[in-house]
Specification:
Number of helices: 8
Strand content: 15-25%
Radius of gyration: 22 Å
Oligomer: single chain
Shape: flat
Length: about 350
C-alpha cells in the first residue's frame, strides 16, 4: 500500500506548532486512543504494531512521524476506519472532546518497573533537563531565522507580484478544479516538511503516493502562499478533499497542497529541497519578482538567506543534541519496561479497532 506520512507538529520560528487538534474532532473519528506515559515506555512501538496489524488486514494507514526525530512515531491514523492512535504527551497534547464515546486513554506507565527506576531517578531528571535546554536553543535559532526570511519575503513582495500570482491561480483553478459536489469540500492539515535532527526533511513520498500530476512551484522567497491560498479556497468551494501543508518556517503560510481525489498536487520546491522528479508543470515564482526590486535588493537578500540558513543549521545541531539526550533518557528507562505487556496492549487495541461496528 502507498506510504503516506505527514507531520502534525513542527519545530518553527513560533515554537512548536501543533495540528493535533484535528484528532479531537468527534465528527470525523469513531475512536481515538490517547497514549500516556513517559520516555521509553513503548508508545512508538505500540503504534507501529497497531499499524502493522491494520496493513495486514488491508487498511490504509497514515503515519505521523515525530518532527524532531522522524524515525519515531507520534500517531497512526486509519482514515477509512475513522480511528487514530496518538501519543498524547507534551508537546502534542491531545485533549478529548467526547471522552469515553470517542477518545479513550491507554496508560503505558503501568509497564514501568517503579522499583528498578528509583536508583536512577537523578540520572533521569538530568537527561530530561538536558533535552529541554536543547529545545530552548533550537527555538531561539529558528525564531531569528524566521525573522530574516520574513524580511526576504517582504522585500520582494509587491502589488504587481500579487496580481501576477492571482492571475496564474485563476488559470489553474479554471483548468484543474471542476465542481465535484454541491457540498463543501474537506480540508485536512499536515506539515509535509519539518526541521528535524536530520536536517530539513520533506516527505516527497507522500506526494508521489497521492498525486500523479505535480505542479512544481520554484520558490526561493516564500511566495507560494499567494498562489496556493485561492486554489485551496476554490478546491473547497467545488467539493474536493484537500490536504493543506503549512511552511514550517512560516506556519501562517501555505507551502504545498495535495488533492488526493484528483491525483493532483502543488509543491514548493527550491535549491534546498527540490522536487525529485520531472513535474507535470513547473512554475518559476522567482521569475515573477519585479526585476528592479530584485536587482537593488540582491545583496541584502543573499545575506539574509545565508545567515538564516546558518541559524537553521544551528537549530538542527540543537535537535541532534536533544535527540542524544532523549536517547539517553530512553536507554535509562528501557531495561525497566515490560515490553511484552506493551505488545499485548497493542494487540488488544488492534482487536478493539477491528471490532468497531461499521
Amino acid at each position: 500500500m502507498p506510504n503516506v506520512q505527514y507531520f502534525l507538529g513542527g519545530n518553527t520560528p513560533l515554537g512548536f506548532s501543533s495540528l493535533y487538534h484535528q484528532l479531537s474532532d468527534p465528527e470525523s473519528h469513531r475512536a481515538v486512543y490517547i497514549l500516556k506515559g513517559g520516555a521509553g515506555c513503548g508508545k512508538s512501538s505500540l503504534m507501529r504494531r497497531v499499524g502493522r496489524h491494520a496493513q495486514a488486514a488491508g487498511h490504509e494507514v497514515i503515519e505521523i512521524p515525530c518532527s524532531g526525530d522522524p524515525d519515531s512515531l507520534d500517531a497512526v491514523i486509519l482514515p477509512k476506519l475513522g480511528v487514530a492512535v496518538v501519543d498524547g504527551t507534551a508537546p502534542h497534547v491531545v485533549e478529548p472532546a467526547c471522552a469515553g464515546a470517542v477518545e479513550r486513554y491507554v496508560d503505558l506507565s503501568r509497564f514501568y518497573s517503579w522499583e528498578g527506576l528509583q536508583p536512577i531517578k537523578g540520572e533521569i531528571i538530568a537527561a530530561g533537563q538536558a533535552c529541554s535546554a536543547c529545545y530552548k536553543r533550537v527555538y531561539r535559532c529558528l525564531g531569528a531565522a524566521g525573522e530574516l526570511l520574513e524580511d526576504v519575503h517582504d522585500r520582494v513582495t509587491s502589488d504587481l507580484l500579487t496580481q501576477k500570482l492571482a492571475r496564474r491561480a485563476r488559470g489553474i483553478i479554471l483548468r484543474e478544479l471542476k465542481p465535484l459536489a454541491a457540498a463543501p469540500g474537506v480540508e485536512h492539515q499536515g506539515f509535509l516538511s519539518a526541521v528535524t535532527y536530520q536536517g530539513s526533511v520533506t516527505l516527497w513520498e507522500t506526494v508521489e503516493a497521492q498525486a500523479g500530476r505535480v505542479y512544481e512551484l520554484w520558490d526561493s522567497y516564500g511566495l507560494a502562499h499567494d498562489l496556493l491560498a485561492p486554489i485551496l479556497a476554490a478546491g473547497l468551494a467545488t467539493g474536493h478533499q484537500v490536504v493543506a501543508c503549512p511552511d514550517p518556517m512560516a506556519p501562517q503560510r501555505l507551502a504545498h497542497l495535495i488533492f488526493p481525489d484528483l491525483s493532483l498536487a502543488f509543491v514548493t520546491s527550491n535549491a534546498a529541497a527540490p522536487w525529485p522528479h520531472h513535474p507535470y508543470r513547473r512554475l518559476r515564482l522567482d521569475a515573477m519578482v519585479d526585476r528592479e526590486v530584485y536587482r537593488s535588493s540582491r545583496p541584502r537578500l543573499r545575506f539574509a538567506q545565508k545567515v538564516a540558513q546558518a541559524l537553521v543549521d544551528q537549530a538542527v545541531d540543537g535537535l541532534r543534541q536533544a535527540k542524544a539526550a532523549h536517547d539517553n533518557l530512553e536507554a535509562l528507562y528501557n531495561p525497566h519496561v515490560d515490553f511484552e505487556g506493551v505488545y499485548q496492549t497493542a494487540d488488544q487495541v488492534a482487536g478493539e479497532i477491528f471490532s468497531l461496528p461499521q
